[in-house]
Design goal:
This protein is mainly beta. 4% of the residues lie in helices and 48% in strands.
């Protein structure tokens, strides 16, 4: 079973940047599609970004297009989310997720989940 551990969250001012990292425990990660989701207080979990196993295809929520970039390094079993031009409405717990099927993550769910990392954007 794949274990995912997020890091890189924190407090940042509006307009700033953060890079989230997700470490996967197994080499089988390399054939999984990966994604990032977020959940703000009192709200449902939302899809943020997805990347296919090779990194050749990515998909973003409209709310983050042009500001966030998802990437992966399969040699290191890592996935990243570079977040620029952060807004207070980006404040949430961010979760890394993995699934064998890219369209599953695009559809808003996944098989494997990390514990989450808090991102807080102050105005």
């Amino acid at each position: 079973q794949v274990q995912l551990v997020e890091s890189g969250g924190g407090l940042v001012q509006a307009g700033g940047s953060l890079r989230l990292s997700c470490a996967a425990s197994e080499r089988t990660f390399r054939i999984y599609a990966m994604g990032w989701f977020r959940q703000a207080p009192g709200k449902e979990r939302d899809f943020v970004a997805a990347i296919c196993w090779s990194g050749g295809a990515t998909y973003y929520a409209d709310s983050v297009k042009g500001r966030f970039t998802i990437s992966r390094d399969n040699a290191k079993n890592m996935v990243y989310l570079q977040m620029n031009s952060l807004k207070p409405e980006d404040t949430a717990v961010y979760y890394c997720a993995g699934d064998p099927i890219f369209s599953t993550i695009q559809g808003g769910t996944a098989t494997y989940w990390g514990q989450g990392t808090q991102v807080t954007v102050s105005s």
